[in-house]
Amino acid sequence: VVGTAGHIDHGKTALVKALTGQETDRLPQEKERGISIDLGFAHMDIDGVPVAVVDVPGHERFIKNMLAGVSGIDLALLVVAADEGPMPQTREHLDILDLLGVRRGIAAVTKRDLVDDEWACIVVEEIHNLLAGTTLEASPVIQVSAVTGEGLEELRKAIGKVVSEAPARTPEGVARLPVDRVFTMPGFGTVVTGTLVSGEIVDGQRLDVMPQDFTVKVRQLEVHGKRVPRALAGQRVALNLAKVERGEVRRGSVLSEPGTLAPTWGFAGTFRLLSRALKPLASSTRVRLHVGTSEVLGRLVSLEGDSLDPGDEGLVRFKAEEPLAVSRGDRFIARSYSPALTIGGGRVITSRGRFRRLNHVDHELLRLLDQAEGPGAALVELRIQNSPVSLQTLGFLIAENPDRVTATVEHLAAGGKALFWREYGLVVHPEVYQAMAGKIRCFLGEYHTRHPMRRGAPREEVRGQATRGWDQRQFTALAAAMEQDGLLVVNKEVLALPGQSASIDVEGRQIKEDLEEQFRAGGFNPPPLTEVVAQAAASGRAGDVVRLLLEETRLIRVEDDMVFHADVVEEAKNRVRRFIQEQGPMTVADFRDLLGTSRRYALPLLGYLDRVRFTRREGDSRTLYGS
Ligand SMILES: Nc1nc2c(ncn2[C@@H]2O[C@H](COP(=O)(O)OP(=O)(O)OP(=O)(O)O)[C@@H](O)[C@H]2O)c(=O)[nH]1
Ligand SMILES: [Mg+2]
Predict the structure, then answer these.
(1) Has residue 356 got a pLDDT over 60?
(2) Is the backbone peptide bond immediately before 28 cis, with ω within 30 degrees of 0?
(3) Rg of the chain over CA atoms, in angstroms?
(4) Are 291 and 324 in contact (CB under 8 A)?
(5) pLDDT at residue 20 tops 80
(6) Ligand 1 atom with least separation from CA of 35
(7) Nearest protein CA to atom 9 of ligand 1, as residue
(8) Residues within 6 Å of ligand 1 by CB
(9) Buried b / exposed e across 561-570, counting CB within 10 Å, b at 16+?
(10) N or C terminus of the chain: which is more exposed, having fewer CB within 10 Å?
(11) How many angstroms does the Cα of residue 297 sit away from the middle of ligand 2?
(12) Which tens digits make up the pLDDT trace of 329-353?
């Protein structure tokens, strides 16, 4: 895909027409005013090789559209009018191409018919100076005229040469197509177009629409105006989508292989502030961020001290004001909010993660990740995430499709570089596991010391305190792994260190005896539990003692605040057994008189005896269970 670039009125659209025979200005206003507003599309054949052309507008107000057009190009055609020479948007467009890392280019000096040789020579020299130090430094400069046709053949040859020398994009990788145009065709439905930046798309397949986050089905596929069964990376594609309303998919949406991209509210990346930028990048600057074909507002936060000076490159975090769809390696451009001027650009390193307080370790990891590839990148991501990650999330992070992610994880796990908790579908970096296991053991150690009379700590408390709220699945998987490694004992909802059990000291034993005595003395009219605890000498510990007594079933809870001593319950059972054996079925009134208590205590206690299947209710009376 070839994309034009250059200042307004310098002859981009005329040149595209001269090369392809196609008029790319379609809008009525474009025709009327003689300027391009939105993107134009054309295609041609050079020695049998199909070449798609994207024509961009030069007007500074439409840079936004220009950005949507150049995101997928392989070759930039920088157009400079011979009579005017380089102008502001010549520079701004060149900055953008440079920041996006476009490495192949041709500079076309148009309107050659309007100037003499000497003047043209000066303009060519100016262009060489302009290109110096950019990614397009080595581009040939060719003089042409759309009016006389001079130089067109040479230009066509030059394009052909670059296209044939460019390495073919591989269809491997995840299918991703940033949408640059959406329209409806009567009787045909919604059509979207864009440049397929990676992977391949086949007729009939399903695709996710991000960040809107829904799925569509491809009904028909076209490349260069011809219906095809499949489209490959690097091609301009038109897709007819089934059951999609026009507003649902927009310019800026990304069509991607299902499950490989997720909406995110920001990312961490590298960023270069243009030396032309008017001021340093403050610690948090509101910008228009352009990535793929989308534009999103948000804040760019420098992670390098307070600010970034013009010409400097550093790590940044972007916090979006709405969800966006980006993944590792994507190039982006930032423009100041007002006035809208290009200030710099960079590359996405990771689209997820908590980067609130970055320390030097995180910085190093981000730099490492920026350079890493394949399984290495997956490993660094796992380290950065600092928690177990699902296979799908890992897929989003490293921009790989599900089966490749699984293969990567298996590979890492086999080499002992990552832990794969298969049963839970989670992957974790060994260092993260070790650190977290250490934290939990530390927490439990303290807990056992503080609460010697408890068997261990409540699971939810550990999850909230030690792992800072990992979700249930992550925490369960971690606890299971730790138990398997002999680092932890899980007893339903209670976690303990191995070899720890509830123990009781002298003071605790004293409290225990006091409590037992009070409930034994209360008999069938026990005091309310909360009152007893509140009045106990060391009421802070009495709660723990009660817990222990309940666990040991020395105390028996029949209702929220009503407990009976085990000896008392035993006595009640003896009396009931004798009564029924001697006098037959027993009523509630009989029971109450038998124990010499009131209905307030008799009913809950009898309910308890029914529940533990000592007595059985038949109508209004009780018999012995199993008799
Ligand atoms: N004499 C002469 N005029 C040209 C040539 N190329 C373009 N023009 C004229 O220059 C004017 C602008 O050309 P366009 O192709 O619309 O310019 P553009 O770069 O596409 O402009 P924007 O899309 O608005 O940025 C038109 O009036 C063209 O006829 C050329 O080679 N020679
Ligand atoms: Mg134009």
Answers:
(1) no
(2) no
(3) 37
(4) yes
(5) yes
(6) 24
(7) 11
(8) 8-14, 34-36, 57-59, 110-111, 113-114, 145-147
(9) ebbbbbebbe
(10) C
(11) 27
(12) 899 999 998 888 999 999 998 887 5
